[in-house]
C-alpha cells in the first residue's frame, strides 16, 4: 500500500459510530518522497476526506509515508513512533489518541 492508496481507502475504514456527535478535523502531513497533506473532517459524526488539507485542523500527524503506512496497517505502534520522534502530533492530543477508534486498520 502506498500513501495515495491509504487515503483513497480511508473513508471506507471510517467508523462513524465511534464519532457520534463529534465535530473535529484530523490532518496528515506526509513529508518524504511521496509528500502531501490530507484531512478528514468529521461533522456531527459524518466524515469526509479533504485532499490538500484544511487551514485549521484540530490535530495534525506529521511523519514519513513508510511510518504512517506501518501504523495504518498495524505493524507499527503509533505511541512508539511518537516516542522515538518518527511521528509528530500537533493540536488536540486526545483526538489523536482517539483516531485509532475512528478508523479500522488497513491491510496491505
Automatic annotation (TrEMBL):
Gene3D superfamilies: SCP2 sterol-binding domain. Residues 15-104 form the SCP2 domain. It comes from the Bacteria. This is SCP2 sterol-binding domain-containing protein. It comes from Streptantibioticus rubrisoli.
Amino acid at each position: 500500500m502506498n500513501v495515495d492508496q491509504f487515503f483513497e481507502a480511508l473513508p471506507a475504514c471510517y467508523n462513524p459510530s465511534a464519532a457520534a456527535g463529534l465535530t473535529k478535523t484530523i490532518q496528515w502531513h506526509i513529508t518524504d518522497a511521496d509528500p502531501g497533506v490530507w484531512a478528514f473532517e468529521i461533522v456531527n459524526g459524518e466524515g469526509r476526506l479533504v485532499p490538500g488539507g484544511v487551514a485549521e485542523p484540530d490535530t495534525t500527524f506529521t511523519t514519513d509515508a513508510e511510518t504512517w503506512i506501518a501504523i495504518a496497517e498495524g505493524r507499527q505502534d503509533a505511541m512508539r513512533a511518537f516516542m522515538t520522534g518518527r511521528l509528530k502530533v500537533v493540536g488536540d492530543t486526545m483526538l489523536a489518541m482517539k483516531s485509532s477508534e475512528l478508523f479500522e486498520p488497513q491491510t496491505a
